[in-house]
Write a structure and sequence with these properties.
By secondary structure, this protein is of the alpha+beta class. It has nine helices and 19 strands. The protein has an eight-stranded mixed sheet. A five-stranded mixed sheet has the order 1-14-13-16-11, with no helix packed on it.
Length: 361
């Protein structure tokens, strides 16, 4: 990534500010009541409500993921990316092998200043064979594991297991915050979930005022659980005024954001928020998100318990697996159109109004 390819250059209106606003107010939530004081759960649920409504992002401490394991996975990530390109490319992903190493991903049709390694929580992961809505065939995505580091696979699988436990705890809190039973979301993830973990490496960039590690985007999944190093670079678009706010790293915390699926399930009570990643000219940065996602056959739509005559469903149902396969195609080629987004399934306000009128006649 030495010379700067024009493919990395952001349009003028999306270029980062080199003196970002540091985040004040992104909630820091202590999860220790889950194990130490069950009586305090109600207060914890209230904190989740406020965080999801006002920010769509929050940080958690005392989350139960062993610190030693976090250190191991961060070290494994650094050792993997420190290898020569030819070694990393032995596990390079392509249109057939969807998981593994990749170094030319695009967001909003602009190339990201990063390299990644992806592995799925369930191996193999079941996924639709095509984007055709009538094609019921399913294919399998297999993990590709590098020869080095030798303990890489073992560490990755243990980490996925522990962060998965945290994901279920957070889903339970989010369900309760919506007035639902704690286990309301479990069934979507119980069999054949499509969750995956990503290692991100953002090398030093000679033009941090022109490029981004990841361009502005929302996460299409249910929940993201992010471990970031002490370099920082994550920016969140503040809901109150649209300003880009830098999330200051908190040692050993995880950064959590609700994804598009929870936005749809909650019928817009909670919103998936736009975010991006800054790079800098001096330091490399590493981060490790878990993208927690349901089974491929899940039809994503507003939950019946959260809709009513007064608050009708704001989205048409869409098949999660088909959505994933459609999105995946854009990783390998620059599109001339925007990739599929949840708002493509949003019911226009005019239709909602017509529906309300017909009910009231």
């Amino acid at each position: 990534m030495g010379e700067v390819d024009p493919a990395f250059i952001q349009d003028a209106e999306h270029r980062p500010k080199l003196s970002p606003i540091e985040a004040e107010g992104i909630p820091l939530i202590d999860l220790s009541p889950l194990t130490n004081s069950p009586d305090a759960i109600e207060g914890l649920v209230y904190e989740i409500v406020e965080a999801c409504k006002n920010w769509g992002f929050f940080q958690v401490i005392n989350h139960g993921v062993p610190l030693e394991l976090r250190k191991k996975i961060e070290d494994a990530s650094r050792r993997f990316f420190a290898q020569p390109s030819e070694e990393k490319r032995k596990v390079r992903r392509d249109e057939v092998r969807a998981l593994g190493y990749y170094d030319s991903e695009h967001t909003k049709n602009v190339r990201d200043w990063k390299e990644v390694f992806d592995f799925s929580v369930e191996d193999p992961t079941l996924i639709p064979a095509s984007t055709d809505p009538d094609d019921k065939e399913v294919t399998k995505w297999y993990n590709q594991w590098p020869e080095y580091p030798s303990d890489f696979r073992e560490i990755c699988e243990e980490y996925a297991k522990e962060t998965g436990k945290l994901a279920y705890k957070l889903l339970e809190l989010i369900a309760m915050s919506l007035g639902l039973p704690a286990d309301r979301f479990h069934g979507f993830f119980k069999d054949h979930q499509t969750s995956f973990v990503r290692f991100n490496h953002y090398p030093p960039c000679p033009v941090p005022h022109l490029a981004l590690g990841v361009g502005r985007h929302k996460d299409p999944i249910a929940l993201t659980i992010l471990a970031q190093d002490d370099v920082g670079g994550l920016e969140v678009k503040r809901k109150s005024d649209g300003e880009w706010i830098r999330v200051k790293p908190t040692p050993n915390a995880y950064i959590i954001n609700v994804g598009d699926i929870i936005q749809v399930w909650s019928n817009d009570k909670y919103e998936s928020v736009e975010h991006r990643v800054m790079v800098n000219s001096e330091k490399e940065r590493f981060s490790i998100p878990l993208f927690f996602s349901p089974a491929h056959y899940t039809m994503v739509k507003p939950l019946e318990e959260l809709t009513s005559v007064e608050n009708p469903a704001r989205y048409r149902a869409y098949n999660w697996g088909k959505f994933v396969v459609t999105r995946k195609g854009s990783n390998f080629r620059k599109l001339n159109v925007e990739n599929v987004q949840i708002y493509h399934f949003k019911i226009p306000d005019s239709e909602l109004a017509e529906g309300a009128l017909s009910i009231n006649k």
